[in-house]
């Protein structure tokens, strides 16, 4: 699976709810993507979400089904300081 960072812009402030997370997770499971973590900006109008998926189209399809934006989808690579330090 490939890692993708998704930027989502919301016109109104966003509140995360159990119901919303459950719905998104069910849709993601149907499409074959996995939501790993999200970050909500202080003004609650933008999120940055890290996902695993086979391709960007699967993420777009999940967002479309959930009626949530996916304004930018960027393929990313994970690097952790402990991995780099352990290699030395």
From TrEMBL:
Record-linked InterPro entries: SCO4226, SCO4226-like
Name of one Pfam family that matches: SCO4226-like
Highest taxon of source: Bacteria
Record's protein name: DUF4242 domain-containing protein
Organism: Caballeronia concitans
């Amino acid at each position: 699976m490939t890692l993708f960072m998704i930027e989502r812009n919301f016109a109104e402030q966003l509140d995360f709810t159990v119901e919303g997370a459950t719905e998104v997770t069910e849709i993601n499971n149907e499409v074959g993507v996995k939501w790993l973590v999200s970050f909500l900006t202080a003004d609650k109008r933008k999120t940055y979400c890290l996902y695993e998926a086979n391709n960007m189209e699967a993420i777009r399809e999940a967002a479309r089904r959930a009626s949530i934006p996916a304004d930018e989808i960027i393929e990313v690579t994970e690097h952790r300081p402990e991995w780099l330090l352990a290699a030395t």
